[in-house]
Specification:
Rossmann fold, alpha/beta, TIM Barrel, about 550 residues
Length: about 550
């Protein structure tokens, strides 16, 4: 059922503008509402860092808990000690509201964390993020209220209710709940914020931030020691790839304002320079959005101002179809050294018809070669374990990667299935997966422990062998390319065994950091350099290793 909306978006936008101009408190305000924001498995969480800063600039006594971090393929399970630290924080803070940011892989963790919250406090629990936005009714199974869509305006309305002494949040646009009969009350969504400059920068190294991982609680922000400055210059994407959340968010937001938005160049640069001042070890910036460098005027203005400001070298990501040479050259002058783009499949047919991702192989090669000519390192993504792929598609992938400018950086991911995504619905319809593959626990287990492709070394069919050849390509050795080429030409059990063995070795070495294999590889590299007389290279490696250890 739906309820009438009482919140006024224009008024809340005016409040956001006022907050944006207000300095954050430096010591916790006394006597006002207390809120607790929780991030699950993401110390870098843009939403929780952003809401914590928004609350601080709104004069709210805010705490942010980063409960567990995202460790690719090696997420650590929640321990009772970690739950104990969370409960102790809840007793100390005694919040008037708890808000949790939830992605689909972390729903089981959200259920456990929220159960712990309810043992300590009767404060209302608000869930936001991708899972509540896509499945608000399901999210109401673990939260009292659910934010559908962007949350800044909703959060400001929540602050006003708390200031008025109320914990009843019903009637706020964009905030779903259940009525007394247990029926879901559809409160729609808020308009998308068009001027992103109104949103405060995310909190880094600010007061009242708490981090829980490896069975301990600490207050120092680990991002302050990072070499990377992670920034989002914009929001939204122009494409609806079938495996991506934007395939659901774009239709959901039609008529809700421009979906693709960019902060002003001055605003983005101000944040980068602020982070440079805070992070003494910072060496480079990473722009983590889909539209950086797309728009000509914005790119030209940003490039000129960033260069003049002395910003650090940076990398970005972009759909190849949107890459323009004139924009790349402008960005290179400003410090662009690497661009990250997705191939996802080496088959034009599968990429366009199944994955709904634009771009043919000939275009991908053209853009990659142009980037290399401009001095930009190409870093590609490829999805493996895709049931729509065939052995022939993997051959095409190998040929495409071999034709790319070398050396090539390549990331290989496992195909994931999230509920309601178009690709998932198609795979269900064609019998490639079952409903059992989409349970909360199955989604969590697959993404927490097999997000990066984990090679299947127990099967010797042609498609698996070719996938493992692709997995080995980041090593970029003559042996790997020889194995890939020969495996494309014909099936051979001996070659297959070699490929599977090397793939298992690479996984243990690069992702599990098996000490015996790490040292074996180091000895091999040292021996090869000594044998070839590359003493300069050996000295550089030893110096780099020494620098990292200190």
């Amino acid at each position: 059922m739906s309820m009438p909306v009482s919140s006024d978006t224009d008024q809340t936008l005016a409040q956001l503008a006022k907050v944006a101009a207000t300095p954050p408190w430096t010591s916790s305000p006394a006597g006002g509402p207390r809120v607790l924001f929780i991030s699950l498995y993401c110390f870098k969480s843009f939403p929780v860092r952003g809401f914590h800063q928004l609350a601080r600039q709104s004069g709210i006594d805010s705490h942010a808990v980063f409960f567990k971090d995202n460790l690719t393929n090696r997420h650590t399970p929640i321990t009772e000690d970690e739950i104990g630290y969370l409960k102790a924080l809840l007793r100390r803070i005694d919040p008037d509201m708890v808000a949790v940011s939830v992605l689909a892989p972390y729903v089981p963790a959200a259920r456990r964390v929220i159960a712990a919250v309810r043992e300590i406090t009767d404060a209302p629990v608000v869930a936001g993020g991708k899972h509540p936005t896509i499945s608000p009714d399901e999210a109401l199974g673990y939260a009292d209220y659910v934010c559908k869509g962007e949350g800044e305006l909703v959060v400001l309305d929540l602050f006003e209710r708390l200031r008025a002494g109320s914990r009843d949040f019903s009637g706020i646009q964009g905030l779903w709940h259940r009525d007394a009969e247990g029926r879901t009350v559809d409160m729609g969504q808020r308009m998308l914020i068009q001027d992103l400059d109104l949103i405060p920068f995310e909190a880094y190294g600010e007061p009242q931030m708490h981090f829980i991982e490896y069975g301990r609680l600490y207050e120092s922000d680990p991002e302050m020691e990072a070499e990377e400055i992670l920034v989002m210059a914009g929001r939204g994407c122009v494409y609806m790839c079938s495996y991506c959340v934007n395939s659901l968010l774009i239709p959901m937001n039609r008529g809700n304002g421009r979906f693709v938005r960019l902060r002003s160049p001055a605003n983005v640069i101000a944040q980068v320079m602020d982070r440079m001042a805070r992070q003494p070890k910072a060496r480079f910036a990473s722009f983590n959005d889909e539209v950086f460098g797309v728009f000509d005027d914005w790119t030209r203005e940003f490039s000129e101002a960033y260069r003049q400001a002395g910003g650090p070298p940076f990398n970005c990501e972009l759909v190849p179809k949107l890459i323009k040479e004139k924009n790349v050259r402008a960005l290179v002058e400003a410090g662009l050294y690497e661009m990250h783009f997705g191939i996802q499949s080496g088959s034009d047919e599968i990429r366009t018809d199944v994955l709904k991702r634009p771009g043919k192989n000939v275009e991908l090669l053209e853009k990659a070669r142009m980037l290399a000519e401009c001095g930009v390192q190409v870093q590609c993504d490829l999805i493996l374990g895709n049931p729509f792929d065939t052995a022939e598609a993997q051959e095409e992938s190998i040929r495409l990667l071999a034709a790319m400018p070398q050396p090539l950086k390549l990331n290989t991911y496992l195909m994931q299935y999230f509920p309601h995504y178009p690709l998932t619905e198609r795979a269900l319809k064609e019998g490639l997966i079952s409903a059992a593959d989409l349970t909360e626990d199955k989604v969590a287990d697959r993404t927490l422990y097999n997000w990066i492709y984990k090679p299947d070394v127990t099967h010797f069919d042609r498609k698996t062998i070719l996938e493992n050849c692709i997995y080995l390509i980041p090593w970029n050795t003559a042996l790997v390319w020889w194995l890939a080429k020969r495996s494309c030409e014909r099936s051979n059990p001996v070659l297959g065994a070699m490929v599977n063995g090397l793939a298992a070795w690479r996984y243990q070495l690069d992702f599990c950091a098996n000490p015996a294999l790490v040292w074996l590889r180091r000895l091999w590299l040292v021996g090869r350099m000594a044998a070839t007389g590359d003493l300069g290279g050996l000295r550089r490696r030893l110096a780099a290793r020494l620098a990292r250890s200190t």
